[in-house]
Amino acid sequence: MIFMMVHLEHSKIEVFIEDLGKYMDPSGRYIIGLETAIGDKLVSTNGEHYHIGVDMSKLAYDAFRKTILIRKHSLRGQNKNGLPKQYGIVRNVRDDTRMLMYSVKDKNVFSNFPDEELRLLLEASFPKVDPIDHVKLMMEELQTHSFTRANDLGEKEVDITRVEMYIVSYYRDKKLMKSLSRATLKSLTTRFLMYYDTGTSNQVILRQVYYLINNF
User: Fold this and answer.
1) Mean pLDDT confidence for 182-200
2) Distance in angstroms (rounded) separating the CA atoms of residues 94 and 47
3) What Cα–Cα distance (Å) separates residue 197 from each residue in 56, 99, 135, 162?
4) I want to staple 75 with a disulfide (CB 3.0 to 4.6 A). Which of 2, 14, 86, 193 is the partner?
5) Is 12 helix (H, G, I), strand (E, B) or coil?
């Protein structure tokens, strides 16, 4: 089975399935999950795209790619001029079933799978979780605390160690520790100093930011 993602409007699904059928294996199966991405990455389709699993040979996929994806829909197969690619094959899939479960996670599915098999895939599919901007939430929480202290010159400065400890605590509590590297910790601390009201003077903040940048 070949898995691919295609950036295409949902309104084109029926024609897409008809075209797909011309390149599938005889008596082959297909499953297409329709999704809408949040953000500005898929501007050309307002976020709409397909996750596809289909019984198709690599030779047939190459013909489908050239005839349908490129010639008919004018889709890009690679990043170009700052724009993202609009179709692509998923390589090195280790578990077809898990990939199928991922493809149907939004529950908006077109398929010729037997009803019972499709039902089981939908029940076991990965639940979609609303994206959370943890950095924004954490920065807002940081703003509710005071991290200032007096330095040796009597100036009010930010206690960087306390800020970093708070960030580590937030990531631990949210079970995000795998994504918190030393560089990320320093970057988040620098961001807090530069863009949020810390209650200290600009001169002191600039000095502390300079220190952080030069001690990564």
Assistant:
1) 80
2) 27
3) 57, 45, 16, 16
4) 86
5) helix
No. of helices (H) and no. of strands (E), the chain? 8, 7
In the predicted model, is pLDDT for residue 129 greater than 70? no
- Tens digits of per-residue pLDDT, 24-82? 999 999 999 998 876 545 667 888 899 999 999 999 999 999 999 999 999 988 877 76
| String of DSSP letters for 59-122 | HHHHHHIIIIIIIIT---SS-BTTBPPSEEEPPS-S-HHHHHHHHTTTS-EEE-S-HHHHHHHH
**CA–CA dist 181, 183 (Å, integer):** 5
Q: Helix (H, G, I), strand (E, B), or coil: what is residue 35?
A: strand
Q: In this structure, which CATH number among 2.40.50, 3.30.200, 1.25.10, 3.40.1310 belongs to the domain 2-124?
A: 3.40.1310
Q: Where are the domains of the chain?
A: 2-124, 134-213
Encoding tokens for residue 189?
Answer: 């601390």
> For tokens 């578990």, what's the residue?
95
